[in-house]
Amino acid sequence: MPPTGTPSDETTATGAPRPAGPGRLAGRTVSRIGYGAMQLGPRLDRAAAVAILRRAVELGVDHIDTAHFYGDGFVNGLIREAIRPEDGVLVASKVGATPDPGGVHSLRLAQRPEELRAGVEDNLASLGLDRIPLVNLRRTDSGPGLRAEGDQVVGLDDQLAVMVAMRDEGKIGAIGLSSVDLGTLSRALPAGIACVQNAYSLVSRDDEDVLSLCVAQNVAWVPYFPLGSGLPGLPKVTDEPAVVAAARSLSSTPAQVGLAWLLHQAPNVLLIPGTANAEHLDANVAAGAITFDDATLAALDAVPSRSGDIALG
Q: How many angstroms separate the Cα of 48 from the Cα of each of 40, 108, 205, 250, 277?
């Protein structure tokens, strides 16, 4: 085993085994199961939130997904407090929205180039970093969420120009995309795209074509809403009879089955399930060890995709 602080394909910088094995993200080897920090909001006890992040590192998580607009910098502040340089954690953030505490959704779109630059500066400040390893540009081309209107309808080329400029300046290490369709990804690839974050799960597979292109181009696929969603009108993976049956036969939970199914889709799939519960965190990481026999996998694959393009706000 390599000494602590020297990550390998099998272990992280802390010496922990990689849950679900190694993957590639922004030019680095990371564990295929990471952690999405969105649920660590201001309503959670700060010490408990820091403990969750430390526990994630102990379990072999070395890829944490965040955004300054999660709690207007609060979540980034937790990461700054909890994560140490020697942990070797790749922190990925995103721009394209900004906090709106008095608004309906607590955030609003911020798609203009000057807003993207301001978003990166906000993330740098709240994370306490000189350079963010990966920044995802959150667009509004596909999936559930806000839709751009008025001056928020911004061309991809203008957005990529400022993202590439910030990469050249050393403020960000790599560029990702979020909520994009096939055409947008195809146009963006020459700029150098490290990952795509789209809504995708067993019950929401509208973006199979985008996933296929990511596989062909060695772009990491990092799905959000990996278990469906509690949003109105969106189905949940854990409600599916085939998922419940598989969980029963494997002595696991439906959530673990849903996460494991995603990992089986392609080697470039990386997961960032979020939770504010320590037991759920342990269970999410343990999902990386689940394997399916052919019959179980076929039954899961047969579950219909029932997602729709639901716009909020």
A: 9, 28, 34, 31, 9
Render the burial of 12-21: b for 16+ CB within 10 Å, e for the rest. Answer: bbbbbebbbe
The CA dihedral of 46, 52, 57, 63, to the nearest 10 degrees, is -90
Coil vs helix vs strand at 147: coil
Write the secondary structure of 161-192 as one string of H (helix), E (strand) and C (coil). HHHHHHHHHCCECCEEEECCCHHHHHHHHHHC
In angstroms, the CA 134 to CA 66 distance is 10
pTM of the predicted model over 0.90: yes
Q: Give the list of residues 6+ apart from residue 54 with CB closer than 8 angstroms, or none.
A: 82
Give the active site residue among 35, 70, 200, 224: 70
Q: How far apart are CA 220 and CA 131, in angstroms?
A: 20
Confirm if 264 and 297 have CB atoms less than 8 A apart: yes
132 touches 124 (CB < 8 A): yes
Q: Mean pLDDT by 10-residue block, N- to C-terminus, for the chain (313 residues)? A: 60 96 97 96 91 98 96 96 97 94 79 97 98 97 84 94 98 97 97 97 95 98 91 86 98 98 97 96 98 97 76 33
Domains along the chain with CATH numbers = 22-301 (3.20.20.100)
Tokens 């809403």: give the residue.
Answer: 225
One-letter identity of residue 303: V
Angle between helices 278-286 and 46-58 (to 10 degrees): 20
Q: Is 224 a catalytic residue?
A: no
Residue 231: predicted pLDDT: 72
DSSP for 228-292, written as a single string: B-SSTT--BGGG-HHHHHHHHHHTS-HHHHHHHHHHTT-TTB-B----S-HHHHHHHHHGGG---
